Protein backbone atom coordinates (compact mmCIF):
# COMPACT_ATOMS: atom_id res chain seq x y z
CA UNK A 1 0.00 0.00 0.00
CA UNK A 2 2.73 2.48 0.95
CA UNK A 3 4.56 1.63 -2.26
CA UNK A 4 1.49 2.37 -4.35
CA UNK A 5 0.90 5.65 -2.55
CA UNK A 6 4.45 6.65 -3.22
CA UNK A 7 4.19 5.88 -6.90
CA UNK A 8 1.08 7.99 -7.36
CA UNK A 9 2.06 10.92 -5.15
CA UNK A 10 4.67 12.32 -7.52
CA UNK A 11 7.70 10.60 -6.03
CA UNK A 12 10.70 10.76 -8.38
CA UNK A 13 12.35 7.55 -9.63
CA UNK A 14 14.50 5.83 -7.06
CA UNK A 15 17.77 7.00 -8.54
CA UNK A 16 16.68 10.66 -8.22
CA UNK A 17 15.81 10.55 -4.50
CA UNK A 18 17.84 12.64 -2.10
CA UNK A 19 20.09 10.11 -0.35
CA UNK A 20 21.63 10.13 3.06
CA UNK A 21 25.03 11.80 2.34
CA UNK A 22 26.77 9.41 4.68
CA UNK A 23 25.37 6.43 2.76
CA UNK A 24 27.24 6.99 -0.52
CA UNK A 25 29.26 3.83 -1.32
CA UNK A 26 32.54 5.45 -2.27
CA UNK A 27 34.54 2.25 -2.35
CA UNK A 28 31.97 0.40 -4.46
CA UNK A 29 31.67 3.33 -6.85
CA UNK A 30 35.43 3.48 -7.30
CA UNK A 31 35.59 -0.26 -8.04
CA UNK A 32 32.70 0.04 -10.49
CA UNK A 33 34.45 2.96 -12.16
CA UNK A 34 37.64 0.96 -12.67
CA UNK A 35 35.81 -1.94 -14.33
CA UNK A 36 33.80 0.38 -16.61
CA UNK A 37 36.93 2.30 -17.60
CA UNK A 38 38.81 -0.91 -18.38
CA UNK A 39 36.02 -2.23 -20.58
CA UNK A 40 35.41 1.00 -22.49
CA UNK A 41 39.10 1.61 -23.14
CA UNK A 42 39.33 -1.88 -24.62
CA UNK A 43 36.11 -1.98 -26.65
CA UNK A 44 35.88 1.56 -28.08
CA UNK A 45 37.98 3.77 -30.33
CA UNK A 46 40.93 5.27 -28.38
CA UNK A 47 40.87 8.55 -30.27
CA UNK A 48 37.28 9.21 -29.21
CA UNK A 49 37.41 7.88 -25.64
CA UNK A 50 36.98 10.49 -22.89
CA UNK A 51 36.39 10.17 -19.15
CA UNK A 52 35.76 12.86 -16.54
CA UNK A 53 34.73 13.09 -12.89
CA UNK A 54 32.61 15.76 -11.29
CA UNK A 55 31.60 16.51 -7.73
CA UNK A 56 27.88 16.20 -7.10
CA UNK A 57 26.28 18.06 -4.21
CA UNK A 58 22.83 17.30 -2.92
CA UNK A 59 20.75 18.64 -0.04
CA UNK A 60 22.00 18.43 3.55
CA UNK A 61 25.56 19.09 2.36
CA UNK A 62 26.19 15.66 0.91
CA UNK A 63 28.87 15.48 -1.81
CA UNK A 64 30.31 12.64 -3.92
CA UNK A 65 31.96 12.06 -7.26
CA UNK A 66 30.08 10.98 -10.37
CA UNK A 67 31.77 9.88 -13.57
CA UNK A 68 30.95 10.78 -17.15
CA UNK A 69 32.19 8.79 -20.14
CA UNK A 70 32.02 9.55 -23.83
CA UNK A 71 33.08 6.75 -26.14
CA UNK A 72 32.71 5.94 -29.80
CA UNK A 73 32.44 2.66 -31.67
CA UNK A 74 33.40 2.31 -35.30
CA UNK A 75 30.35 0.34 -36.38
CA UNK A 76 26.76 0.55 -35.07
CA UNK A 77 26.61 -3.24 -35.31
CA UNK A 78 29.05 -3.34 -32.37
CA UNK A 79 26.59 -1.55 -30.06
CA UNK A 80 24.54 -4.56 -28.95
CA UNK A 81 27.56 -6.72 -28.03
CA UNK A 82 29.08 -3.77 -26.13
CA UNK A 83 25.87 -3.12 -24.18
CA UNK A 84 25.73 -6.79 -23.22
CA UNK A 85 29.31 -6.71 -21.93
CA UNK A 86 28.63 -3.49 -20.02
CA UNK A 87 25.53 -4.97 -18.43
CA UNK A 88 27.42 -8.06 -17.27
CA UNK A 89 30.40 -6.04 -16.02
CA UNK A 90 28.26 -3.53 -14.12
CA UNK A 91 26.11 -6.24 -12.53
CA UNK A 92 29.17 -8.25 -11.48
CA UNK A 93 30.60 -5.11 -9.84
CA UNK A 94 27.49 -4.46 -7.77
CA UNK A 95 26.06 -1.75 -10.02
CA UNK A 96 22.91 -1.42 -12.08
CA UNK A 97 21.91 0.22 -15.35
CA UNK A 98 19.04 2.48 -14.30
CA UNK A 99 18.10 3.70 -17.73
CA UNK A 100 19.10 3.42 -21.39
CA UNK A 101 18.31 6.25 -23.80
CA UNK A 102 18.53 5.19 -27.42
CA UNK A 103 18.82 8.02 -29.97
CA UNK A 104 19.55 6.34 -33.31
CA UNK A 105 18.78 9.50 -35.29
CA UNK A 106 21.63 11.19 -33.41
CA UNK A 107 23.74 8.03 -33.56
CA UNK A 108 24.17 7.66 -29.81
CA UNK A 109 22.97 5.74 -26.77
CA UNK A 110 23.19 7.00 -23.18
CA UNK A 111 23.38 4.79 -20.10
CA UNK A 112 22.59 5.97 -16.56
CA UNK A 113 24.32 3.73 -14.01
CA UNK A 114 24.39 3.60 -10.25
CA UNK A 115 24.61 1.67 -7.01
CA UNK A 116 21.57 1.25 -4.84
CA UNK A 117 19.56 4.41 -5.44
CA UNK A 118 22.50 6.65 -6.36
CA UNK A 119 23.64 7.65 -9.84
CA UNK A 120 27.37 7.10 -10.17
CA UNK A 121 28.01 7.09 -13.92
CA UNK A 122 26.67 8.26 -17.25
CA UNK A 123 28.04 6.75 -20.43
CA UNK A 124 27.37 8.18 -23.89
CA UNK A 125 28.24 5.76 -26.70
CA UNK A 126 28.20 7.19 -30.20
CA UNK A 127 29.11 6.02 -33.68
CA UNK A 128 29.97 7.81 -36.92
CA UNK A 129 27.62 8.14 -39.83
CA UNK A 130 28.22 5.18 -42.11
CA UNK A 131 28.48 6.22 -45.72
CA UNK A 132 26.55 3.90 -48.04
CA UNK A 133 28.77 1.44 -49.83
CA UNK A 134 29.14 2.44 -53.45
CA UNK A 135 27.56 -0.19 -55.64
CA UNK A 136 29.53 -1.48 -58.57
CA UNK A 137 27.62 -0.57 -61.74
CA UNK A 138 26.08 -3.62 -63.36
CA UNK A 139 27.91 -4.48 -66.58
CA UNK A 140 26.23 -4.26 -69.94
CA UNK A 141 25.90 -7.65 -71.61
CA UNK A 142 26.55 -8.97 -75.10
CA UNK A 143 26.67 -12.47 -76.55
CA UNK A 144 28.90 -13.64 -79.40
CA UNK A 145 28.06 -16.92 -81.12
CA UNK A 146 30.89 -18.51 -83.10
CA UNK A 147 29.26 -20.53 -85.90
CA UNK A 148 30.39 -23.25 -88.30
CA UNK A 149 32.61 -25.17 -85.89
CA UNK A 150 33.26 -28.86 -86.37
CA UNK A 151 36.45 -29.24 -88.37
CA UNK A 152 39.25 -27.35 -86.57
CA UNK A 153 40.23 -27.88 -82.95
CA UNK A 154 43.17 -25.41 -83.12
CA UNK A 155 40.87 -22.48 -83.98
CA UNK A 156 38.66 -23.36 -81.02
CA UNK A 157 41.73 -23.40 -78.77
CA UNK A 158 42.68 -19.93 -79.99
CA UNK A 159 39.19 -18.64 -79.28
CA UNK A 160 39.29 -20.16 -75.80
CA UNK A 161 42.61 -18.42 -75.18
CA UNK A 162 40.75 -15.08 -75.28
CA UNK A 163 39.16 -16.03 -71.94
CA UNK A 164 35.67 -14.91 -72.89
CA UNK A 165 32.30 -16.56 -72.42
CA UNK A 166 31.63 -17.06 -76.13
CA UNK A 167 28.85 -19.36 -77.29
CA UNK A 168 30.09 -22.06 -79.66
CA UNK A 169 27.79 -23.47 -82.35
CA UNK A 170 28.89 -26.79 -83.86
CA UNK A 171 27.79 -28.30 -87.17
CA UNK A 172 26.67 -31.93 -86.86
CA UNK A 173 28.40 -34.92 -88.46
CA UNK A 174 31.77 -33.17 -88.91
CA UNK A 175 35.07 -34.90 -88.23
CA UNK A 176 35.68 -33.00 -84.99
CA UNK A 177 32.10 -32.17 -83.92
CA UNK A 178 32.06 -34.43 -80.86
CA UNK A 179 35.66 -33.67 -79.86
CA UNK A 180 35.02 -29.92 -79.96
CA UNK A 181 31.84 -30.30 -77.91
CA UNK A 182 33.70 -32.39 -75.32
CA UNK A 183 36.49 -29.81 -75.10
CA UNK A 184 34.07 -26.91 -74.72
CA UNK A 185 32.06 -28.70 -72.08
CA UNK A 186 35.23 -29.42 -70.12
CA UNK A 187 36.04 -25.70 -70.29
CA UNK A 188 32.52 -24.74 -69.15
CA UNK A 189 31.56 -23.05 -72.42
CA UNK A 190 28.06 -23.06 -73.86
CA UNK A 191 27.53 -25.41 -76.80
CA UNK A 192 24.87 -25.10 -79.51
CA UNK A 193 23.88 -27.39 -82.34
CA UNK A 194 24.32 -25.40 -85.55
CA UNK A 195 21.34 -27.02 -87.25
CA UNK A 196 21.57 -27.02 -91.07
CA UNK A 197 18.36 -25.85 -92.77
CA UNK A 198 17.30 -25.56 -96.36
CA UNK A 199 18.34 -22.30 -98.10
CA UNK A 200 16.52 -20.55 -100.94
CA UNK A 201 18.92 -21.84 -103.60
CA UNK A 202 18.76 -25.48 -102.55
CA UNK A 203 19.94 -27.82 -104.07
CA UNK A 204 22.38 -25.50 -105.86
CA UNK A 205 23.61 -24.54 -102.41
CA UNK A 206 23.84 -27.42 -99.96
CA UNK A 207 23.35 -26.81 -96.23
CA UNK A 208 25.42 -29.92 -95.48
CA UNK A 209 24.83 -33.23 -93.79
CA UNK A 210 22.04 -33.43 -91.24
CA UNK A 211 19.95 -30.65 -92.77
CA UNK A 212 16.24 -30.07 -92.19
CA UNK A 213 14.58 -29.89 -95.61
CA UNK A 214 11.14 -28.60 -96.57
CA UNK A 215 10.11 -31.96 -98.00
CA UNK A 216 10.46 -33.69 -94.63
CA UNK A 217 7.57 -34.86 -92.48
CA UNK A 218 7.35 -34.05 -88.77
CA UNK A 219 8.60 -37.56 -87.93
CA UNK A 220 11.57 -37.15 -90.27
CA UNK A 221 12.40 -33.79 -88.69
CA UNK A 222 12.28 -35.37 -85.24
CA UNK A 223 14.63 -38.20 -86.28
CA UNK A 224 17.03 -35.82 -88.04
CA UNK A 225 17.34 -33.54 -85.02
CA UNK A 226 17.91 -36.58 -82.82
CA UNK A 227 20.70 -37.82 -85.12
CA UNK A 228 22.29 -34.37 -85.28
CA UNK A 229 22.27 -33.92 -81.51
CA UNK A 230 23.94 -37.29 -81.09
CA UNK A 231 27.03 -35.90 -82.84
CA UNK A 232 27.11 -32.67 -80.78
CA UNK A 233 26.96 -33.69 -77.11
CA UNK A 234 26.17 -31.14 -74.40
CA UNK A 235 24.20 -28.86 -76.76
CA UNK A 236 21.88 -26.66 -74.68
CA UNK A 237 20.32 -24.91 -77.64
CA UNK A 238 20.13 -24.59 -81.41
CA UNK A 239 20.68 -21.93 -84.03
CA UNK A 240 20.14 -22.36 -87.74
CA UNK A 241 22.85 -22.82 -90.35
CA UNK A 242 21.59 -21.28 -93.62
CA UNK A 243 17.79 -21.80 -93.64
CA UNK A 244 16.75 -18.79 -95.72
CA UNK A 245 13.86 -20.88 -97.10
CA UNK A 246 12.96 -23.08 -94.16
CA UNK A 247 12.81 -20.24 -91.60
CA UNK A 248 10.08 -18.56 -93.68
CA UNK A 249 7.83 -21.65 -93.62
CA UNK A 250 5.56 -21.68 -90.58
CA UNK A 251 4.63 -25.37 -90.76
CA UNK A 252 8.22 -26.58 -91.04
CA UNK A 253 9.52 -24.28 -88.33
CA UNK A 254 6.68 -25.24 -86.03
CA UNK A 255 7.72 -28.90 -86.33
CA UNK A 256 11.35 -27.97 -85.58
CA UNK A 257 10.48 -25.77 -82.62
CA UNK A 258 8.08 -28.30 -81.12
CA UNK A 259 10.89 -30.87 -81.14
CA UNK A 260 13.26 -28.42 -79.47
CA UNK A 261 10.61 -27.65 -76.88
CA UNK A 262 10.22 -31.35 -76.12
CA UNK A 263 13.96 -31.55 -75.55
CA UNK A 264 14.06 -28.33 -73.48
CA UNK A 265 16.45 -26.68 -75.93
CA UNK A 266 16.41 -22.95 -76.70
CA UNK A 267 16.54 -21.47 -80.19
CA UNK A 268 18.43 -18.53 -81.68
CA UNK A 269 17.27 -17.31 -85.08
CA UNK A 270 20.41 -16.61 -87.11
CA UNK A 271 18.29 -14.39 -89.40
CA UNK A 272 19.80 -15.52 -92.69
CA UNK A 273 16.86 -13.77 -94.37
CA UNK A 274 14.81 -10.71 -93.47
CA UNK A 275 11.69 -12.78 -94.20
CA UNK A 276 12.31 -15.20 -91.33
CA UNK A 277 9.44 -15.91 -88.96
CA UNK A 278 11.41 -18.30 -86.75
CA UNK A 279 11.90 -16.06 -83.71
CA UNK A 280 8.31 -14.78 -83.67
CA UNK A 281 7.01 -18.34 -83.99
CA UNK A 282 9.27 -19.56 -81.19
CA UNK A 283 7.90 -16.83 -78.95
CA UNK A 284 4.32 -17.81 -79.79
CA UNK A 285 4.98 -21.48 -79.06
CA UNK A 286 6.78 -20.68 -75.81
CA UNK A 287 10.30 -21.75 -76.74
CA UNK A 288 13.00 -19.73 -74.99
CA UNK A 289 14.52 -17.83 -77.89
CA UNK A 290 16.35 -14.84 -79.31
CA UNK A 291 17.60 -13.51 -82.62
CA UNK A 292 20.89 -12.41 -84.09
CA UNK A 293 21.30 -8.63 -84.26
CA UNK A 294 24.82 -8.28 -85.67
CA UNK A 295 26.83 -10.30 -88.19
CA UNK A 296 30.49 -9.71 -87.39
CA UNK A 297 31.93 -10.95 -90.66
CA UNK A 298 29.30 -10.75 -93.39
CA UNK A 299 32.01 -8.90 -95.33
CA UNK A 300 35.64 -10.03 -95.33
CA UNK A 301 38.38 -8.17 -93.53
CA UNK A 302 39.37 -7.23 -90.01
CA UNK A 303 38.21 -3.61 -90.16
CA UNK A 304 34.64 -4.56 -91.03
CA UNK A 305 34.53 -7.01 -88.11
CA UNK A 306 35.92 -4.35 -85.76
CA UNK A 307 33.25 -1.89 -86.85
CA UNK A 308 30.58 -4.53 -86.25
CA UNK A 309 31.98 -5.13 -82.77
CA UNK A 310 31.60 -1.41 -82.04
CA UNK A 311 27.96 -1.62 -83.15
CA UNK A 312 27.51 -4.58 -80.82
CA UNK A 313 28.94 -2.52 -77.96
CA UNK A 314 26.53 0.34 -78.66
CA UNK A 315 23.61 -2.09 -78.76
CA UNK A 316 24.65 -3.57 -75.41
CA UNK A 317 24.89 -0.11 -73.84
CA UNK A 318 21.36 0.65 -75.03
CA UNK A 319 20.16 -2.34 -73.02
CA UNK A 320 18.89 -4.41 -75.93
CA UNK A 321 19.52 -8.12 -76.51
CA UNK A 322 22.96 -7.66 -78.09
CA UNK A 323 23.54 -10.95 -79.91
CA UNK A 324 26.22 -11.25 -82.59
CA UNK A 325 27.30 -14.12 -84.82
CA UNK A 326 30.81 -14.59 -86.14
CA UNK A 327 32.79 -17.35 -87.76
CA UNK A 328 36.16 -19.03 -87.14
CA UNK A 329 38.07 -16.79 -89.55
CA UNK A 330 41.48 -15.23 -89.06
CA UNK A 331 40.17 -11.70 -89.59
CA UNK A 332 37.36 -12.25 -87.09
CA UNK A 333 39.73 -13.63 -84.47
CA UNK A 334 42.06 -10.65 -84.88
CA UNK A 335 39.14 -8.22 -84.64
CA UNK A 336 38.04 -9.88 -81.40
CA UNK A 337 41.55 -9.65 -79.96
CA UNK A 338 41.74 -5.94 -80.76
CA UNK A 339 38.24 -4.86 -79.68
CA UNK A 340 37.54 -6.92 -76.55
CA UNK A 341 39.76 -4.68 -74.37
CA UNK A 342 37.50 -1.79 -75.38
CA UNK A 343 34.49 -3.82 -74.22
CA UNK A 344 36.15 -4.20 -70.83
CA UNK A 345 36.81 -0.45 -70.58
CA UNK A 346 33.16 0.22 -71.40
CA UNK A 347 32.00 -2.30 -68.76
CA UNK A 348 30.49 -4.68 -71.32
CA UNK A 349 30.58 -8.33 -70.37
CA UNK A 350 30.50 -11.17 -72.89
CA UNK A 351 27.93 -13.69 -71.65
CA UNK A 352 26.49 -16.98 -72.86
CA UNK A 353 23.67 -16.34 -75.30
CA UNK A 354 21.18 -18.12 -73.03
CA UNK A 355 21.43 -15.14 -70.63
CA UNK A 356 19.92 -12.83 -73.25
CA UNK A 357 16.98 -14.94 -74.37
CA UNK A 358 13.28 -14.48 -73.64
Automatic annotation (TrEMBL):
InterPro entries: Divergent_DAC (IPR006837), Glyco_hydro/deAcase_b/a-brl (IPR011330)
A Pfam family this chain is assigned to: Polysacc_deac_2
CDD domains found in the cross-reference section: CE4_DAC2
GO biological process: carbohydrate metabolic process
Source superkingdom: Bacteria
Protein's UniProt name: Divergent polysaccharide deacetylase family protein
Organism: Candidatus Moduliflexus flocculans
Amino acid sequence: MWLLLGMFSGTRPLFEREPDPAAFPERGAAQLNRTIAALLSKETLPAYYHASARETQRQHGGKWMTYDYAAQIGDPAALSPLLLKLSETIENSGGEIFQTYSQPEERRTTLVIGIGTLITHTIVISWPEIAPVAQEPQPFRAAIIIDDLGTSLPMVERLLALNQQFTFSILPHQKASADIAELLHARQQQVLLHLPMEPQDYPSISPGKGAILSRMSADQIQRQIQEDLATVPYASGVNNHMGSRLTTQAGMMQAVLKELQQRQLFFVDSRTTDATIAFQLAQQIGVKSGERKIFLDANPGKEFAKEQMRKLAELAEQGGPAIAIGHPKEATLTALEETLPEFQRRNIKIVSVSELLQ
